[in-house]
Amino acid sequence: MIPMQQQVSLGQIPAIRPGIKQAERLHVAIITDGNGRWATFRGLPRSAGHRAGAEAARSVIEAAPALGIHTLTLFALSAANWKRPAAEVNAILRLLHEYLLAETTHCIHEGVRLSILGRRDRIPATLRQVIADSEAATSRGTRLHVRLAIDYSAREAIFSAACRFYKATELSQDSFSQVLSEVQRGGSTEVDLLIRTGGEQRLSDFLLWECAFAEFVFLAKRWPDFTGGDLRAAIDEFHQRERTRGSLPDEVLAEHPNRPTLPQCFHYFRACVCALRTFEGREVIRRFRPARRLFSRSK
Ligand code: FPP
Known about the structure:
It is a single chain. It is built from 10 helices and 6 strands. The protein is α/β, with parallel strands linked by helices. The protein folds into 2 domains: 10-247, 3-Layer(aba) Sandwich (Undecaprenyl pyrophosphate synthetase), CATH 3.40.1180.10; 260-297, no CATH class. A 6-stranded parallel sheet has the order 3-4-2-1-5-6, with helices on both faces. Strand 3 (112-117), helix 4 (125-137) and strand 4 (144-152) form a beta-alpha-beta unit. The chain is elongated. It binds farnesyl diphosphate. Farnesyl diphosphate is lined by residues 32-37, 50, 53-54, 57, 74, 76-77, 81, 92, 95-96, 99, 148, 198.
């Protein structure tokens, strides 16, 4: 965890490195934790912490494109949060409603696409409508894709996707991702960097499938205090990490060219023999026979 004193406070966000390529741009996901404690520490009601959290979200969204982020996913309300007192959950839902109403026009001007991840059947119908309007109005935004997770549970989304996938004809990880993206809405793209504020170090049922190879940065800072400068510091840390996804660093791989070992050759040979013994294998041999005869006649 980056200690509190090293975390960056307010500051100007320098412009994006010139010439940054699309492929280098990142998906950053944030667990926006600590609103309640932020408010309690100041003697304010918890809802004031959530309001301050929405402000922090606004400034982070503003900073994101210049930091090379193409997708920013924020955990605004988890499915588990329904266990909180109804007054608090309702205050968060009202806040999200207001936030979407207030931010949609701004997002259109800034080229920001808004999507909402999560269930829609338990939230108020009025919020459902605002979400649909906001998503439609901002759908052309290409500068940044902001995904707000509302009533979201990764485990639930994966389970629903698995139930639907059961009947699929094409069984691959890519097609599963596609089903997951339809089930949870708002897409399903691999997370590069996962940030959690508020001092806890856990994933809390957030983007379990998409975080398979994510780098994690945990911060003691509470979400309302998080700034664009903190986001920049987290991204700088991300760029210092070596991401091999289970392989080896490029320079090490270059020293060890990938020649098959003797047991591997033996394994491939056996696999070929087994394949030729199958019905399709015998068909291949049968089809080659006339060609072989032709070849021997021409001699
Ligand atoms: C976590 O803090 C925050 C939430 C459960 C919900 C609300 C989140 C926001 C308002 C920020 C994002 C907002 C928008 C509009 C994108 P907590 O209540 O769990 O804090 P605690 O751990 O200190 O109690």
